[in-house]
Amino acid sequence: MSDIFHEIDEELKADRARLLMRRYGGYVIGGVIAIILLVAGRQGYMYWDQAHREDLANRYQTAVLSDDMLGNLSELTQETGGYGMLARFATAAELAKTDPKAAEALYMALAEDSDLAQVYQDAARLLSVIHSADTTTVAERLDRLAQIDKASSPWASLVKEWQIALYLETGDMASTQRSLQEWKADGQVLTPRANARRQLLEQALGVNQ
Questions:
Q1: Which of 50, 74, 117, 157 has the largest count of CB atoms under 10 Å?
Q2: What mean pLDDT comes out for the span 52-59?
Q3: pTM of the prediction?
Q4: Both ends of the chain: CA-CA distance in Å?
Q5: Cβ(183)–Cβ(198) under 8 Å?
Q6: DSSP tag of 66
Q7: 17-43 as b/e, with b when 16 or more CB fall inside 10 Å?
């Protein structure tokens, strides 16, 4: 008798299972398919991304080694991400050889690009001073340098050197000597090579060390 009840119980369980599968099976199958598609999509994107980055690296290397560097870099400058930024910096550096005004404008565009990390914005701002056109005033260049946070920027020592160079350009010896003392006192920005250049500059100017 117990066998009959056991068989009935098993059949009821099977019926409930079939009912659940009919009711919810579509959702389960849909969920499984969604997971498979997500995994496949992620793997596909990773493959595409790797291939895309390798393509950009090859195109960048080809461009900078070509006879028409500016022309070959032009498309890469429209890319987002690291190689797009590199292409823009490389384009500005190449333009600086023949067209300082265009190079300066491109460096300033990089300096104002909020999508870039601050360190790259600061580098671009500094380079816009180094490669500035003759029409850019000393006051404008000094203002750009003042916008770079010398307490945290890795370019702080170069910023201080260019500030001193600009003060010398205008004959402002008081600001030159003050900046030299600030430069000497700020150990955070004074690398060994920068220290050697500072000492040479002080000797040339007859400033007490």
A1: 157
A2: 79
A3: 0.69
A4: 110
A5: yes
A6: S
A7: eeeeeeeeeeeeeeeeeeeeeeeeeee
Residue labelled with tokens 């959702």: 27
The answer to whether the beta carbons of residues 171 and 178 sit under 8 Å apart is: no
Rounded average pLDDT over 97-114? 94
Burial class (CB in 10 A: 0-12, 13-18, 19+), 117: exposed
Report domain extents, the chain: 1-65
Residue 67, class by beta-carbon neighbours within 10 Å (0-12 exposed, 13-18 middle, 19+ buried)? exposed
- What sign for the dihedral angle of Cα 7, 10, 16, 19? negative
Chain centroid to Cα 66, Å, comes to: 24
Element holding 58 (H helix, E strand) = helix 2-65
Closest CA to 184 of 208, 153, 154, 149: 208
Q: Please write down the long-range contacts of 163-168, taking CB distance under 8 Å and 24 or more positions apart.
A: 164/201, 166/129, 166/138, 166/141, 166/142
Q: Please count the other Cβ atoms lying within 10 Å of the Cβ belonging to residue 132.
A: 21
Q: φ, ψ for residue 180 (rounded to 5)?
A: -60, -45
- 64 contacts 57 by C-beta, under 8 angstroms: no
Residue 4 CA to residue 88 CA, distance in Å, equals: 82
pLDDT of residue 5: 47
Among the ranges given (83-97, 111-125, 186-200), the one the predictor scored with the smallest mean pLDDT:
186-200
Binned at pLDDT 50, 70 and 90, residue 124 comes out as: very high
